Structure to design on (577 residues):
């Protein structure tokens, strides 16, 4: 099957998933007005939000994998999501609330946390030890631990209700999202997608290594800065709104690479489509597993992602 | 074409290269030789603006190197690194195609001269038979040819190569040497090559630059390079010489006795 055919098949699959999932497990009880309301006010915005967040998480994961040339490097494994979580937790705990250009304080501090974490990982891996896979991942793990313990510290200081909220939110959940949240998230994911699509040729060359990319004419430094900036923005926005939903950014782009190949001109749309529908499916599962109660979607993605991570690690080890 | 005056490179407080002066004319073929760690690759990377020089001045076509944008420089100088490319899952044609980056922006269309450039590059390096294979499935020799093909598709007057024959068997070494000579003689490309093969440097190149501990030990015409005293100083190794059975030239052999 040619790449274009695969992309068309993936688009059809995505449309199908998005159309069907609001109706899954739909109780026939109640009047038509109530049913209408559940679909329009709860299910549809939730599915659209899940799709957008999945898009963003998968894209950020794809960019990290390409930039660090390592399938295990994602915003989640390198501690960027933890940085964003810490930022968001601090703003919630301190009760800071303001909005600039429609950005909430939580989003802004999550973004700042993500940016700090990413500069940390990047400078340590770059200036101290070079870009070896192990050091990079260990740096990410160390940063994750550090930020996680700070979050625990904040949680310990909070009262019981806040503390439960923080735990629930850290698991990554889409239970409370509506059109308002969708409206807040959409600009970030769109901006990220536009920048990444604009830089698709540069991403291809970065896969070949910094030196080759530079000698072909890529301004590697500026491309990296631009990509770090937009991925931090995107991860920050997603984490602030629905918590750190893990492993989507690792599994989706990797599966897409296996199916579509390495060329980012095709990999980007594939990752967006599959990332979106993947999170929609996971969220639908999260609604079904212990119905009528719900699981946080992050539990599902992490349950799938853990084994996937191990599998990737074994593959990566045997290749290098 | 390329002129270096008093080039120094320092990383931290370690001096990698010190006071190198070197003029490379258009159409020249310069081999850079020297023992391991003598700064050959560092010098090459400095000429490519991959490493910043901490002192001295490099100019290309009369213009200071650091004034060039990355894209502009990529249309003047192409680079074949020592290793790389063998981990990629792009196919050969896609990889060579990517070398046309500097001639395009996001919305520009693929032109016939782009296609010609990659076809020529694949032809001259004899890479047509495996143009649709993934880079990761190529042998060392094939991968090296593709790396050279990609640099050729970049269509630059200057080509820099870092030990292009290091991992190749004798047959492929000869093939790559002949290819480089053809590029220099027929296409008038300026070649700068880092090599450990002193006989190849003496036989094929026009000038040799010998580096020792980051400094220039000798710079002169290739036919005068093979000298017992110089080689001993350079490599801390005695060499003996023999006349080539079929050609009017000397061959240097490391003396193991």
């Amino acid at each position: 099957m040619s790449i274009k055919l695969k992309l068309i098949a993936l688009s059809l699959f995505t449309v199908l998933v998005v159309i069907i999932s609001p109706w899954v497990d739909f109780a026939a009880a109640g009047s038509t007005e109530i049913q209408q309301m559940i679909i329009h006010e709860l299910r549809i915005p939730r599915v659209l939000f899940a799709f957008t967040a999945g898009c963003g998480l998968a894209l950020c994961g794809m960019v990290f994998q390409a930039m660090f040339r390592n399938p295990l490097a994602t915003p989640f494994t390198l501690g960027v999501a933890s940085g964003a979580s810490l930022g968001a937790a601090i703003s919630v705990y301190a009760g800071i609330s303001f909005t600039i250009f429609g950005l909430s304080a939580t989003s802004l501090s999550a973004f700042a946390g993500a940016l700090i974490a990413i500069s940390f990982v990047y400078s340590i891996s770059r200036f101290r030890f070079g870009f070896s896979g192990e050091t990079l991942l260990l740096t990410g793990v160390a940063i994750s631990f550090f930020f996680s313990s700070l979050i625990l510290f904040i949680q310990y200081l909070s009262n019981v209700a806040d503390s439960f909220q923080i735990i629930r939110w850290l698991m990554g959940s889409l239970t409370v999202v509506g059109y308002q949240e969708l409206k807040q998230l959409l600009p970030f994911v769109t901006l990220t997608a536009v920048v990444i699509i604009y830089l698709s040729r540069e991403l291809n060359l970065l896969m070949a290594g910094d030196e080759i990319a530079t000698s072909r004419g890529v301004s590697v430094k500026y491309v990296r800065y631009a990509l770090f900036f937009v991925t931090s923005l995107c991860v920050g926005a997603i984490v602030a709104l629905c918590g750190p939903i893990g492993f989507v950014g690792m599994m989706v782009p990797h599966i897409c690479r296996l199916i579509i190949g390495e060329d980012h001109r095709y990999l980007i749309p594939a990752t967006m489509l599959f990332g979106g529908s993947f999170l929609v499916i996971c969220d639908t599962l999260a609604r079904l597993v212990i119905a009528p109660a719900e699981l946080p979607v992050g539990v599902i993605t992490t349950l799938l992602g853990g084994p996937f991570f191990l599998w990737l690690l074994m593959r990566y080890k045997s290749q290098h | 074409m390329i002129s270096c005056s008093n080039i120094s490179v320092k990383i931290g407080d370690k001096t990698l290269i010190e006071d190198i002066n070197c003029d490379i004319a258009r159409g020249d073929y310069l081999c850079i030789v020297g023992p391991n760690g003598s700064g050959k690759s560092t010098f090459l990377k400095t000429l490519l603006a991959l490493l910043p020089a901490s002192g001295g001045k490099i100019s290309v076509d009369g213009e200071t190197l650091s004034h060039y944008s990355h894209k502009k420089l990529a249309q003047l100088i192409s680079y074949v690194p020592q290793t790389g490319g063998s981990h990629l899952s792009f196919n050969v044609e896609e990889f060579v195609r990517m070398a046309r980056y500097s001639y395009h922006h996001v919305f520009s269309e693929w032109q016939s001269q782009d296609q010609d450039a990659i076809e020529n590059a694949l032809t001259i390096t004899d890479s047509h038979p495996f143009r649709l294979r993934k880079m990761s499935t190529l042998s060392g020799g094939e991968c090296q040819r593709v790396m050279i093909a990609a640099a050729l598709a970049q269509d630059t007057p200057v080509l820099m190569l870092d030990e292009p024959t290091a991992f190749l068997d004798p047959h492929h070494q000869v093939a790559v040497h002949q290819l480089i000579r053809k590029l220099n003689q027929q296409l008038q490309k300026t070649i700068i090559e880092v090599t450990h093969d002193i006989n190849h440097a003496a036989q094929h190149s026009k000038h040799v630059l010998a580096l020792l501990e980051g400094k220039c030990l000798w710079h002169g015409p290739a036919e005068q390079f093979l000298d017992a005293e110089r080689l001993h100083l350079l490599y801390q190794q005695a060499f003996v010489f023999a006349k080539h059975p079929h050609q009017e030239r000397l061959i240097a052999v490391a003396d193991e006795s």
